[in-house]
Amino acid sequence: MQEHQGKNRPIVYASRTLNKAEKNYAVTEIEALAVVWALKKFKYIIYGYSIEILTDHKPLLHLFKGKDLSGRMSRWLLTVHDYMPTFTYIKGKANVAADALSGNCALTCAVSTETPTFDTLTHTDIFKAQRDDPMWSKVISYLETGNDLDLPHVPSLSHYVLQDDILYKATTLTGKYEPSRLIHQLVIPQTLVPSVLKLIHDTSHASHPGKEKTLSQARLKYFWLTMRRDINNHIDLCHTCARTKGNIHPHVPILSYPVPSSPWDVIAIDLLKLPLTERGNQYMLVCVDHFSRFSVLVPIPNKAAQTVARAILNYVICPFTTPKVILSDNGTEFVNQVLISLCKEFNIKKANVLPYRPSANGLVERHNRKIINTLRSLVPDTNTLWDTYTPQVMASLNSTINKSISETPHYILFAQDKRLPYELLAKKPNPVYNMDDFVKTNVHTFQQIHQRIQHSLALSKADMLLYHNKSASNFSLEIGDIVYSLVEVKHSKLDPKFDGPFRMIVKEHGNKVKLLRLKNHTETTAHLDSLKKVHSGLDCEDPQFIPTVSQPPHSPPPPASPENPPFFSQPPQHSYNLRSHT
């Protein structure tokens, strides 16, 4: 606050909750934490000015004058001294500004401003609405007077009765396992249908049931001619149901991808987190060549950007060659300026798979399983010596026949099998060549190997596509379709299953699409396997979402004018005009 004309006027409000560790602090420590946090929060407003801190906790007046503070309090003391504040005690009942943010927190959280309120249907509302309805008013007139002039065609007219001047329909309710019983359904005129739909579906005691359950529950009490259609449309346009229920589309057929033409064209990299070793290594950098399946394993102490980039340079680029493409996930150890600079310097294309889709980098993920299984059988029970076994694991992987290429990775790179200690039989001596003959022979051998491996990879790819696409189904999305995206990381089991709504704006390569979040106009990329298509009118139900327009969705909206008023000044398409009450 700042004093103005003799009164303290607020400049800005701020508050936050305590984290798990801070909840264990003593009362005085929590009060001191509030002071330190506020000083840091308002630093750019208050720094360099005379500051007075008003508190209703007296120990704070002398706490930061102490000389024997240690640990956390001593660090806080240094922060407070940077601002040189003056502490003033005020009574608790006078500290109304802070109490408004802290003392009423529980009440504010319990009564959420996002919780909708709903009308109940009163006798007067129903009486008036039924007599204002063009069809039901004539039925009521017929029942009261017996005059059937202008009486519309109503199925089962004899089932309608008047009770307390309200129109009901007598219906026999039949169940699969229960005997039938007679019920009286309240006839709902068209003007009250939106109110009833919200009462039987959106309220807390209804809890957003599915279409059939909502219809069954509605038929216990209400009747109107288009019940099933209106209920289905209402649930199709329910944001809560779209975010919390349903399932994503079954996986789509994967598209064909190019087979690399030679070793080190494409390498896939990933990090394995393992137990901390005696040498201080906790991660293993795994690099796999897509063509030869040759593996390079590097133990590293951490996953800092410099550490990962240095390992790629020292153990892949320098001893072997520069790859054309490096494929990785979206971890910060791979998406950073250091690795981008390394790729730019060596003219390497850096490619990232979509988040939460490890199958897109499946080659290195399968190698990770092989590495874990091999280490589990080699490493002693202490698990702190795995980095000393890394060369043996790498030799085992590279000298074993790979199923996809029907050869060993070492043979593909060096045109000869790896000489291993257990090879006891003496081999025939290699022929002696001069330099020119040796080069020609090797070139011819490598050409044959590469052609055979390309053929094997093509057959392996065809088998994989056939196996995957056997249970896949097509998912057709067009520009402008409304979708929800699966929430991959949930902090609680009660978190919504889906995020959205989004509008599809661009079809990208493969099964990826670019989406526009309708709430704040931010763009994101998603895979079709993580999406759920919803009703096209869902985004127009809530006025905070942007409607479908003719111009590209990611272009800025046209300026407001008398001919083109801003969207937020227009009423929503489905305006129910419910009276709010508590």
Automatic annotation (TrEMBL):
Entry keyword set: Endonuclease, Hydrolase, Nuclease, Nucleotidyltransferase, RNA-directed DNA polymerase, Transferase
Top-rank taxon, per record: Eukaryota
A Gene Ontology molecular function term of the record: hydrolase activity
Protein's GO biological process: DNA integration
Chain positions covered by the region annotation Disordered: 542-582
Segments forming domain Integrase catalytic: 259-417
Classification via InterPro entries: DNA/RNA_pol_sf (IPR043502), Integrase_cat-core (IPR001584), Integrase_H2C2 (IPR041588), Retrovirus_Pol_polyprotein (IPR050951), RNaseH-like_sf (IPR012337), RNaseH_sf (IPR036397), RT_RNaseH (IPR041373)
Composition bias type Polar residues, residue spans: 570-582
Keyword Acyltransferase set for record: no
Biased composition (Pro residues): 553-569
Known EC number: 2.7.7.49
Broadest EC class assigned to this enzyme: transferase
The UniProt record lists the keyword Nuclease: yes
GO CC, alphabetical: DNA polymerase complex
A Pfam family it matches: RT_RNaseH
Protein name per UniProt: RNA-directed DNA polymerase
Organism: Petrolisthes manimaculis
